[in-house]
Write a structure and sequence with these properties.
Layout: H1 2-10, H2 18-41, H3 44-50, H4 56-70, H5 80-84, E1 97-98, E2 103-104
Antiparallel strand pairs: 1-2
């Protein structure tokens, strides 16, 4: 009786049906995805793109700071250092004055109030 029980243990049904094939496929898929992720993570160009003080995250931080301060989207044509160190005693800051159109971003009436 004991010999039959041991023989049943050695006969793995998991390897004989499709469930075993699915497990092997998932393990292989995980291995492929892990190797692709590892390749990206150790790539010099990827590290240059992501790096903290000069890469993607610096650009995101600058964009968030600029848009929070001025209520406008930050783009490549804006000099970040000059924009963030602005003297607000004039009307030339980005929230108020549009340099491309040489006029205010705000609107107002063309005639004085009261029809005078």
């Amino acid at each position: 009786m004991d010999v039959v029980w041991v023989a049943k243990l050695q006969n793995l049904d998991l390897l004989k049906n499709k469930k075993g094939q699915s497990i092997v496929e998932y393990i292989l898929l995980l291995a492929v995805l892990s190797s692709i992720g590892y390749s990206f993570y150790n790539n010099a160009m990827f590290k240059e793109f992501i790096k903290g003080e000069a890469g993607l995250f610096k650009r995101i931080r600058q964009g968030m700071e600029y848009s929070y301060r001025y209520g406008r989207q930050f783009n490549n044509s804006i000099d970040y250092d000059n924009a963030m160190n602005f003297d607000y005693r004039t009307n030339q800051h980005d929230t108020y004055f549009n340099n491309q159109e040489n006029r205010s971003r705000f609107f107002g009436g063309t005639d004085p109030y009261g029809g005078q």
